[in-house]
Each structure stands twice: as C-alpha cells, then as structure tokens.
Amino acid sequence: MRLSALNDIVDGGFAEVEATIGDDAESLILFRDGDDVRAWLNVCPHAGRRLDWAPGQFLKSKDGHLVCAAHGASFELVRGDCVAGPCRGDALRAVAVQVRDDGVWLA
Ligand code: FES
Prior knowledge:
Elements: E1 2-5, E2 14-21, E3 24-33, E4 36-41, E5 59-60, E6 66-67, E7 74-75, E8 82-84, E9 94-95, E10 97-100, E11 103-106
Antiparallel strand pairs: 1-11, 2-3, 3-4, 4-9, 5-6, 6-7, 7-8, 10-11
The site of FE2/S2 (inorganic) cluster (FES) has 11 residues, from loops.
Organism: Pseudoxanthomonas japonensis
Domain Rieske: 1-106
InterPro entries: Rieske_2Fe-2S, Rieske_2Fe-2S_sf
C-alpha cells in the first residue's frame, strides 16, 4: 500500500496518513530523514492520544524531538523512544515502511 509521495514530506518534517494494518484503520506518523522515512502509530504511549494538535500538524522541539501535543512527551526520531515527559522509557510503536519509486509504502 502506497502511503505518500516522498516529496510530499518536507525533509526533517512529518506527515500523517491513514492506513489499514491488519484489520484496523490506523493513523500513522511519517518522519522524513533525507531519502529515508520512518513511521509509527499516531498513538502516544502515555494516554493513547494522537500526537498531532491538528491533523498532520506535529510539534518538533529545538532538540529535534517529536513532542506529543497532549501532555508534552518527547520522542527521539530514530527508534521512537520517549526521552522526556510522562511516558519516559516507553516508545512509539514502529510501523515498517520503505521508500521506492519516489513513494513511501507499507513494507
Ligand atoms: S497522551 Fe501524549 S503525553 Fe499524554
């Protein structure tokens, strides 16, 4: 399943897409890092809220962390580990994606 065009995501930025995983419709966070994209479920491990404050609008700290809009948990963007805030030590759930043909696909 194709999720996005690579160039629809700003380098260093985020996008939100809907995808069916298993039998469930899920909201995903896509993060672009050059020619690479990483993805996680858009579900915060703290209280299960979405991390964006409006659809597709994610906060990034000056340290380069993704910040949950609900209560401010911060996540590093390699593994999705929570490095500060109420769920420190927990992590976002990674979703396997791959970049090919200028698109981002579920792996
Ligand atoms: S739901 Fe994300 S910090 Fe509380």
